[in-house]
Structures are given as C-alpha cells and as structure tokens.
Amino acid sequence: MSNSSITENLDWMDQYIQSSSSLEKKGTVTRVTGLVIESEGPEAALGDIVKIHSPKKDWNISAEVVGFRENKVLLMPLEEIHDIHPGCHITASSQTVNIPIGPALVGRVIDGLGRPIDGKGPLLSDQTQGLYNKPPNPMSRAPIKTVFQTGIKAIDTFTPLGCGQRVGIFSGSGVGKSTLLGMIARGAESDINVIALIGERGRELREFIENDLGPEGMAKSILVVSTSDQAAPMRLRAAFLATRIAESFRDSSQKVLLLMDSITRFAMAQREIGLAIGEPPTSRGYTPSVFSHLPRLLERSGMNEHGSITALYTVLVEGDDLNEPISDAVRGILDGHIILSRELAAANHFPSIEVLDSISRLVRALLPEEKRQVISKARDLLTLYRKNEDLINIGAYAQGSSPQLDIAIEKQPQLMTFLRQDTQEKVSREESFEQLSAILS
User: Fold this and answer.
1) How many CB atoms lie within 10 A of CB 423?
2) pLDDT, tens digit, for every residue of 29-41?
3) HEC-encoded secondary structure of 104-148
C-alpha cells in the first residue's frame, strides 16, 4: 500500500472517530467562582452542553460552555447545583445537541432545552435541527407589502404591521403587556404562533395560558418558557430556541407570528453571563456582548424566500425611560415601536397603547393613500387635543376660538372609545377603518 493511501485511510479513520456519537470527551472541575465553574477540559466549543457528575453524590447536571480562560473551560450550570466540588467529572459528547421542530410541537409548552413541561407526555417529533442559525441573506428578503392583521384596532389602524415586520412593544411593568400579547395571539391572521416567555414569573405561566391565550390561541401556538429562577444560559437558549422553531415553520412557507416577552430579560441574562466571565461593564452595567447578541437574535426574524416571521418583542423599560440602553438599541434595529402608557393603564384604558408615540416604519408600503389620510386626520386631532389639554381642563379655552380645536374636543371622547377594546373582542382591519372613518366624517 502506498504512503498516500495510508495517509488517506488514517485521515478517514480520524474523521470517523471524531464524528462518532459514542466518543466522549472528559474533564474535571478545578474551581467554582460565583456562577462560573472552571474545569480542565473537556474539549468543547462555545455553546456546547456538557454533563457534570459527582463521584461522591449520585447526580448529574447540565452546563453550558460560556468561555475560556488560560486553557480552562468556563461553564455555567443550566440547573441548580448542590455539593459540587473539585474533582467532579465533566463529560462532553461529540454528538451535536439538536432541538425538536415540526407540527408535533403545536399546542405544547417546552423549556429552553426543548423538553416538554406541560405534563402531556414526550414530544412525538422526528424532526430535529441545530439551535443556532444565520439570519437570511439580505438580498433574499422579499419586500414587505402585505398587511398583517392583529385584530387590535389601535394597532391595525394607527401602527399597521406587515408580514415579516419586526416591532417592539415598549412599556414599564404592570401596564398590560401580557394581556396585549394574548389578544394578538388570538386575533392575528397567522398560521402558527411561537411565544417565548423569557425570565417571567413562574406564577404567570398558567395565568397567561388560561386567561390571556385561551384555548383558541393555544390551539395554534407553541410556548417556550424559561422562568426568572432559571439560570441565565437557559433564558438565552429559550430565546434562541423559539426563534429557531419559528424559522423552521417559515422555511416551510408558513406565516409565523413570533412573540417574545421580554427582550430586556434576554439582555439581562447575557449581562449576567458577561459579568461572570470577566467582561467589562459599559452603559448601566451592560457588557459589550449584550449589544452584539441583540442584532444576532432580532435579525433572524422577518422575510425570506419561503415564508415570513412577523415578530413582536416586548421591551421592559427601566424606570419608564424610553432612552435607557436596551430600549435605545432595540428601537434602532426594529421596524417600528408600540408604546404602552402607564397613564392610560391607570385610567382603565386598555389596551394602553399611546398611538401618538407609536410608529410603524412601513405605513407607506402597506396602506393606500385614502387610509393614510384617515390616520393622519385622526393623529392631527389627537395631537391638537393633547397640546391644549391643560387649557381645556381648567376651562381657560373659549369655544369658537379655534374651529379645528373645537372639532378635536368634539371627537376626543369618540376616538378614545374607539381605541379601547375588550380582551375577548376581535375586530377586522377593514371594520376598524370603517369605524374610524365614521368618527371623523
């Protein structure tokens, strides 16, 4: 046998051994500092899942590779750790960890590792894919020209969405984000809903499913959940998993609605990891990796040559400051924003959408001229009333001084009634415009 043939056979055998699913790579825990576990080995890549086993105690936990330092592997556990000590064995399999996809997930609730947590048995899915994916090629993204109906009057008229558009819902805590997401999931004209609850309270999961989503919404939804008590890598993986599932349905030419609550807690999870492995804090303690992860996640939704992912990401605004770092970064990436007002929520006005501060960047591409004129006229009246509201309330404005302001005062109650909507009410886009046109005529 020639030397070249021997070399080719050795190369083939090496590739076979490296790709064999039975090959296990070993390591040992050397130190634990805060949330980070340091180990000598195993050979693994960023994002890989490893198993930590204690020879003294009968337990195994999963951990994710989050970094490297001086030939040491940095791990963060995906579960609670107890009795960990130097010498614990670490095992990394060369087999790629895939996540389930496909129609078998519809109506199910899973965690960040793709495991069912709804008590309905195992997922009967024979389709799997890797967790991470690249955003679509910019040249393969079709222009957004088709209106996406949400069933919410305030959104479908004042901030219309298109199929494949990405929009942020900005608000403080306790102003009705979850309720609004449930209304959209029930009323949207999507083929499938993928809903990611990132860092939410565990108590709210069943409330969201039973009260906000309901049987109608759950029948075409997949929920990916990582509660606030779970480790930061689990919260990150839940966001990427939900996006990957949405991508799989988009690639099968379906119209997908992706709802993620919230992108702020995704950023907080990445900040937690970054600070733990030694990244320098920047604006408000957020590390540079936070601002690099945001576009990698957000750019994966939208249009491709097959289907569309219309994505709505909630942003939990710290201190109601719309210019805080995460809000500012997300607003610059997305195609519009919907602002929820604490004042409207306090006045029992739901959904508490502040239509004058909310913007869809695709209005001209989505609506004909006559509908844009209706929206413009309504915005003018609401803006004029807001500017003179103090004068009106204290009785300093004399009726007849400004004909346009007189019209604004007359139409204000009707417009505010129009913008209110019961949680179980679903209104078509055409009906919404008919109601708004009737008020303005």
Assistant:
1) 15
2) 999 888 899 999 8
3) HHCCCEECCCCCECCCCCCCCCCEEECCCCCCCCHHHCCCCCCEE
- Beta strand 161-162 with 72-77: parallel, antiparallel or unpaired? unpaired
Q: What is the pLDDT of residue 356?
A: 95
Place of tokens 């490297």: 68
Task: Give the whole-angstrom CA distance, residue 262 versus residue 239.
Answer: 9
Strand partners, 25: 92
3-class DSSP assignment, residue 289:
helix
Q: How far apart are CA 85 and CA 87, in angstroms?
A: 6
What gap in Å lies between CA 321 and CA 418, rounded to an integer? 28
For 59-116, give the secondary structure using H, E and C. Answer: CEEEEEEEEEECCEEEEEECCCCCCCCCCCEEEEECCCCCEEECHHHCCCEECCCCCE
Beta carbons within 10 angstroms of residue 225's beta carbon: 25
Is the distance from CB of 421 to CB of 179 less than 8 angstroms?
Answer: no
Quote the CA–CA distance of 315 and 326 in Å, as a whole number.
8
pLDDT (tens digit, 9 = 90+) per residue, 14-30? 555 454 444 568 889 99
Q: Per the structure block, which two tokens stand in for 355?
A: 């239509």
